[in-house]
Structure formats: structure tokens, C-alpha cells
Design goal:
heterodimer, A: alpha+beta, six-stranded mixed β-sheet, five-stranded antiparallel β-sheet, 8 helices, 24% helix, B: mainly alpha, 12 helices, globular
Chain lengths: 345, 298
């Protein structure tokens, strides 16, 4: 296993800059998640590491070797594709053996390794089937088995769970993490799903419009988002951001509060006027979403900004249309520069 | 009767009416000649014109199909197929692979490579007759002057006709195989690259198996095409020299136009039936044998 290092990596397609001076260090045995909305450049970055896209600028190092001019086949990586990219004309066994075959592994060893990989993913009974005869989840496992059959420097995964149904996705998520721990593997994992990122990654690297926004452990990224983009992207429901409302900080600040830090008080009688300058903010309850284990109360400020509060179900719910007061601990409030979006303290 | 079923019947009637022109064309040009051919084959034509033909049933089949001229014609046809089909598919595949790249201006090459599909056999034959011509052709211009001239050389004439055929069918083969190549998902190649496969391994382990249904189709129609070639032989060699290019289709024609004595529709019909059975048999064998080696995705 090895570390992967990107330095000033840039990719330009005609006049579009897909990845802009990306610097990233992935440590040996680390599970790093590249997270961002679609089109943010995360897949392009992964494909450059794999060697499937050429770099416009910058350097990629795998292990101790600069691989800019190394062909994909010689980079000693394994990749799991979103489409799984299984060879439809080969049996499951031959699919899994393929990376060994191309490297001239002797037949007996090939068979043993392929069977071990298949067994560890519960594919034992399916070795002689063709990919077309498998379910989506089984195909995904074959793709994984084909990756783990070797012991490469690093595993690259491009949205490998996005074609699974919700239930299977949650299950496979946990299995993937377990697999990575067991193999002590370096994994670079691309996803647009922040729940996957939060639950799987040792660290998350968040990208937007080709630019790296923040890298850090999930909890740190959640607790101290580096800018407004990260603040709004991480967390479900996302962080509330309210422009220019914090007294004494001037108008150029955007404040952010996580929904779980918003307190909703019902001490304002229904129909009375919303107090403008008291502590907290007056708002009207617009929508209440109950998820069973918790409740999202969507409140509307007088300027039509929505503020979402997360409530436990043990708290008595407000009624829709109620006038309420919202307040939050100063310690839990994030401040961002309104002009640049960068975290301000 | 409801109005719905009445309308459905009227629609069905219209459907059959629209089929009529196609059915007429098929009956006149395919079904009738096909059946009439079987009937003609039951009669023996006398060696002198204007005498009545005689009903012999299946008696003349053995004589005709056992004759040296039939056997040699069949051998020529098989040789012709072996000269044209593998070469045609090999070259079509090479061009299709070469043109299946995302390069600027590759469309120009694709157009050039597929252009022979718009060339008729007759035009191709005339072009190559000129090129082979010992007086005004390309070869004398190049200073090469084979003696005897290529199309009069018993050793080269069949190969020359095969060359024309390969050239003329190359456009279609190229288009077929290009379409097959474009249907192979790009991510299979990417996965294979990361899995350690170089260009050669990718070609043999991904391209060829994924293309095998198309290749199979090209082999079958190429073989049928080779067994039915006529125009280029008529125009370039007329079956000569010394019947060295006298393929089955041309021998059928020879029986009818009087090249081999008086026109003999009965014998021509037997030969045509033999060609039909051989082509059908070849196709069935290819279906059985080759298809086992074809990888269909599902």
C-alpha cells in the first residue's frame, strides 16, 4: 500500500478548468473521500490519479514515484467504476482474475486468489455466471472483488454505491469500511453523497467548481466548515445561513447555525406582532417535517429567509402558522465573511 | 358489433392494403422465379436448339452435380470466398480500429474509408479493369508490365477479381465494424487499462470478444456475398482465362447465354439450386459453429 500525493494538479478541457491547482496528500492506509456536487471535478481528479486523464499541470506521486507519464496499467492501482465496468463476455471468475492475468500470475495462484477474493465478498456460488445474470448488488461485489484480488498501492472508487438501492447502499457502505480496515488499504473514494463521506472517510476533501474547499476529518469539517459552501453542503438538513443579522459584527457577515442548535420557543402568543429587537429572532412556523426519530421545523423570518430547527420528538411540536422565537448559543454560531464566504473566526 | 372492433377491422384492412405493393414485388421477382427454377430443373434441354425439352424429373441432378465442370466451378467459388472474406474483414477491422479514435479530422478518414459503399460493383470493376489494363493502366505507368497481363494470367486472374471485390465491399465492412466498435462501452477499456492491460491485450481480450457478434455477422454476409459475386467477374474476366474465374454464378450465366453451347435452362436451374443449397448450408454451419464462439452481452 502507498500514499498518493497531488501537487498543483490542474485539468483544463478546452476553456473549462475542471480541476484547479489541487493539492492533496493521501496517507498510506487512509480512507479519503473526495466530496462535491456533480461537475465539481472530483471524478476528473480521480481519473487523473488513475491515469485515464492527462494532467494539464501539476504532479501526481504514487508511493515514491511521480506517475505523470506512467501508463494506467503500470500505476499499480485498482479502480471500481460507477458502472462497475465488468467485462460482459467473461464469467465472474474470469472478471476477478483479469488483473492477475494481465500481469502474468500463474494459473494456480490466480485461481486461489480469485476464489479468496470472491469468498470474502460472498460471491462463491456465482463464479461461473456472466455479469448479465447478476443483480446490481452482486455486480458491485464482483467489481470490488476484481479490485481487491491484487494488493495495489491504492484503491480508487468512483461513486461505487450510487447504482444500488437505498437499503443495500447503507449495508454496503459499512462493509466497504470494514474491508478497507481489514486490507489496510489506501482508498480514494469519490462521492456526491455527504452521508457516505461523513460515515466512511478518515478525512473528507470537499471540492467545488474544480477548487478544493476544505480537507479534514468528518467531524472537524462538520463542526468548523472553512467557508459558506462547505457549511451549506455538509449536514442534512444543511446549516442555516442568515445574512447580516449578528448584532455588533457589521453587515458584511453571514452567520450560520446548525439546525440542531436552533431553539424554538413558543412564548409569543399567536397573532401578536413579531418583536424586532428582542433576543433571538421572531419567525413563523411554515412547515413541520416529522421523520419519526426527530422533527424538522421550518420557520420563516420576516425577510422570507427560512431557518430549519431540528427537534427531538419528546419536545411538544409547535403548530403550523405559530409565531415563535428562535435563539441559539453564541458558541454554536459560525461567522462567515459575506463577500468571500470564508470563515471569520 | 361495437364501433371499436369495426375500426380495428378497418385498420387491419388498410394494413394489408399497404402490404400489397411489397408482396407483388416479392412474388414477381423472388417467389415466382424461385419456384419456377425448381420446375425448370425437372426438364432436360436437348443439345440442339428448337427441339422440345423432355421431362426427366430429378435424373439430371447427378450428371450435372457430378460433372468435372461443376466441381471445378465449385472449387473456384470456394477459393474466391477464401480470398475475399478473411482479407475483407481483416482490412475492414484494421481501418475501423484506426478510425475509432477521438482525433481532430478523423471524420474525413471515416468518410474516405466508407466511401466504397457508394460504389457499384460495375463501377469498381471498370476502375480496376483500367488499372489492370496492360496498355493504359496503372501498372505500365509504374513501369511494371507483367506478361501475360494480370487478368489473362490463370494464376492471378482470380486474385485480381478478389481484390476488386475486397475493395468494393470494404466500405460496408468498415461501417459495420465501426458501428460495432462504437457500441463497446469506453469504461471497459478504462477498467482494463487500470487492470494492467496494454493495447494488445485490450484488443484481444476486450475488442475482439465484444465485437464478435458483428464479426460473425460480417463473416456470414461476406460469405453469401462471395458466393453470389457476378458483376465483377463478368466485366473483368468473363470467367476466363480458361475458366479460372468461372465461379458458380458465372457458370449458371454461361448455361443460359450460350457460352457453353446452346442455352440450357434446365442445367442452369440445377446449378442455381445447387448454389442455393450450398449457400444455405454454409450459413447454417456458420450459425452453428461460429455462434458458439460469439459473446453476446446478455
Amino acid at each position: 500500500m502507498g500514499r498518493v500525493s497531488l501537487s498543483g494538479v490542474t485539468k483544463q478541457f478546452d476553456d473549462v478548468i475542471a480541476v484547479d491547482h489541487l493539492d492533496l496528500e493521501v496517507a498510506d492506509r487512509e480512507f479519503l473521500v473526495l466530496l462535491g456536487p456533480s461537475g465539481c471535478g472530483k471524478s476528473t481528479a480521480l481519473r487523473m490519479i488513475a491515469g485515464l486523464e492527462e494532467l494539464t499541470e501539476g504532479t501526481i506521486t504514487i508511493g515514491d514515484r511521480v506517475v505523470n507519464d506512467v501508463e494506467p496499467k503500470d500505476r499499480d492501482l485498482a479502480m471500481v467504476f460507477q458502472s462497475y465496468a465488468l467485462y460482459p463476455h467473461l464469467s465472474v471468475r474470469k472478471n476477478i482474475e483479469f488483473p492477475l492475468r494481465t500481469r502474468g500470475t500463474p494459473k494456480a495462484q490466480r485461481t486461489a486468489q480469485a476464489e479468496a477474493a470472491a469468498e470474502s465478498l460472498g460471491l462463491d456460488g456465482l463464479l461461473d455466471r456472466k455479469p448479465g445474470q447478476l443483480s446490481g448488488g452482486q455486480r458491485q461485489r464482483v467489481a470490488l472483488a476484481r479490485a481487491i484480488v491484487r494488493d495495489p498501492q491504492a484503491f480508487l472508487m468512483d461513486e461505487p454505491l450510487s447504482n444500488l438501492d437505498a437499503k443495500l447502499r447503507v449495508q454496503t457502505r459499512a462493509e466497504l469500511v470494514e474491508l478497507q480496515r481489514r486490507l489496510q488499504a489506501t482508498v480514494i473514494y469519490v462521492t456526491h453523497d455527504q452521508v457516505e463521506a461523513m460515515t466512511m472517510g478518515d478525512r473528507i476533501a470537499i471540492m467545488n467548481e474544480g477548487v478544493l474547499q476544505q480537507v479534514g476529518p468528518p467531524q472537524e469539517v462538520y463542526a468548523r466548515p472553512a467557508n459558506l459552501f462547505v457549511a451549506r453542503f455538509i449536514g442534512t438538513p444543511p446549516m442555516n445561513t442568515i445574512p447580516g443579522e449578528l448584532i455588533g459584527e457589521g453587515p458584511s457577515v453571514v452567520i450560520g447555525v446548525r439546525p440542531e442548535h436552533v431553539r424554538v420557543s413558543r412564548d409569543i402568543p399567536r397573532g401578536s406582532e413579531i418583536p424586532a429587537s428582542s433576543e433571538g429572532m421572531g419567525a413563523t412556523v411554515a412547515i413541520i417535517e416529522s421523520l419519526g426519530h426527530e422533527r424538522h421545523v421550518i420557520c420563516r423570518l420576516p425577510d422570507d429567509t427560512n431557518v430549519i430547527a431540528r427537534q427531538g420528538i419528546d419536545v411538544p411540536p409547535p403548530a403550523m402558522g405559530d409565531t415563535v422565537r428562535l435563539d441559539f448559543d453564541a458558541a454554536q454560531v459560525h461567522r462567515f465573511d459575506a463577500a468571500t464566504g470564508v470563515r471569520a473566526g | 358489433m361495437t364501433s371499436r372492433s369495426r375500426r380495428r377491422r378497418r385498420e387491419a384492412g388498410l394494413g394489408y392494403l399497404l402490404l400489397v405493393p411489397a408482396v407483388i414485388i416479392f412474388v414477381v421477382f423472388i417467389f415466382y422465379p424461385f419456384l419456377r427454377n425448381f420446375q425448370l430443373a425437372l426438364y432436360l434441354n436437348p443439345p440442339f436448339p428448337n427441339l422440345p425439352r423432355r421431362w426427366v424429373g430429378l435424373d439430371q441432378y447427378r450428371d450435372i452435380l457430378g460433372s468435372d465442370s461443376f466441381i471445378s466451378s465449385l472449387k473456384t467459388t470456394i477459393a474466391f470466398a477464401f480470398l475475399t472474406v478473411p482479407a475483407g474483414i481483416g482490412m475492414g477491422l484494421a481501418l475501423a480500429v484506426a478510425a475509432n479514435r477521438k482525433l481532430r479530422g478523423i471524420g474525413i478518414y471515416r468518410t474516405i474509408f466508407s466511401s466504397t459503399v457508394a460504389t457499384s460493383v460495375a463501377v469498381a470493376a471498370v476502375i480496376f479493369s483500367m488499372l489492370f489494363n496492360p496498355i493504359v493502366g496503372l501498372l505500365p505507368w509504374l513501369g511494371v508490365n507483367p506478361n501475360p497481363p494480370i487478368i489473362e494470367n490463370p494464376d492471378l486472374a482470380l486474385a485480381a477479381v478478389a481484390l476488386v471485390t475486397v475493395w468494393q465491399t470494404l466500405g460496408l465492412t468498415f461501417i459495420l465494424l465501426s458501428a460495432g466498435l462504437q457500441a463497446i462501452p469506453e469504461d471497459l477499456y478504462e477498467a482494463a487499462q487500470v487492470d494492467g492491460a496494454g493495447a494488445t491485450v485490450r484488443f484481444w481480450r476486450i475488442t475482439i470478444p465484444m465485437l464478435s457478434p458483428t464479426l460473425f455477422f460480417a463473416v456470414v454476409i461476406g460469405s453469401i456475398h462471395a458466393f453470389q459475386s457476378f458483376g465483377q467477374i463478368d466485366i473483368i474476366t468473363s470467367g476466363g482465362p480458361f475458366k479460372h474465374t468461372n465461379v458458380l454464378t458465372y457458370s449458371i450465366y454461361g448455361e443460359l447465354n450460350g457460352t457453353n453451347g446452346p442455352p440450357n435452362p434446365g442445367k442452369a436451374a440445377v446449378l442455381a439450386i445447387a448454389l442455393f443449397v450450398i449457400t444455405l448450408g454454409l450459413t447454417v454451419v456458420q450459425m452453428r459453429v461460429l455462434e458458439r464462439r460469439v459473446h453476446y452481452a446478455r
